[in-house]
Amino acid sequence: MISEIPVPNRPDLACADDAPTRQTIRVGLIGSGIGQSKSPALHMVEGAAQGLDYRYELIDLTERGLSPEALPDLLAEAERQGFAGVNITHPCKQRVLPLLDALSEDAQAIGAVNTVVFARGRRMGHNTDWSGFYRSFRQSLPEAKIDHVVQLGAGGGGVAVAHAAIRLGVGHLSVCDIDAAQAERLVSSLNARAGRVVATVIPDPAEAMAQADGLINTTPVGMDAHPGLPLDPALIGTRHWVADIVYFPIETALLAAARAKGCAVLPGGGMAVFQAVGAFELFSGRAADSARMQAHFTTLIRNA
Fold it and tell me: At what angle do helices 129-140 and 156-168 cross, to 10 degrees?
């Protein structure tokens, strides 16, 4: 049984509908090379639709000529300026951990934070990457068989997706990564939290794919900057479902190959949207209209 993820409650934020003027919410994104991020548009358009004066700013380390060591100062700056919180992306998702006062249960389990909420003088770290994949999967592949799943990649995105996979009820996760030690760390963590063997490291996906129900790609292979396929497409059969977390392009070579074989596919855009949905809800204390945000994301990608 897959449980619902509750919408967070932010009692420290007043409801704009009860106020004489529009409530202002100021947030941002800290990371390197984030100039093409769709997060500002996704957040601000949803905020405006809900009657908020919602401002989302990019705090780009590359643009400012800063290294990740500047993160403590950037967090303090955002707090001083009255931000409700900030999203965190590469290369700061783990570096931010010692700078926080508390972590959500999922962020602590994953060991990475992509959303920091400032409230009552405290910094609370959350991870909406995992819930982004979780919600996207539930929406698009609700009937998919998940007894055995192969996951390619055990890096930052892979850790969050693996957490989501176990929360979804995947019976066994076979993890393959070119960095065997990284895969071992992820698998050991998953098994320790579950108290049983729910994941194993595989050196090659071929044998596991013959038994698996589905495949998840969490590697960068397939991105515009890393074109190609993360595995031999001959390993994909009609019975498989295939998910990718890459969304530039939205139809990766992997998804195109799977679709051509009649497989059910899950593009990475869904995870991108739902991680933004989760962050918006944490920052604003309001339920986001996920369908509206998905429609807006589709427009943004089409016009990119």
Answer: 50
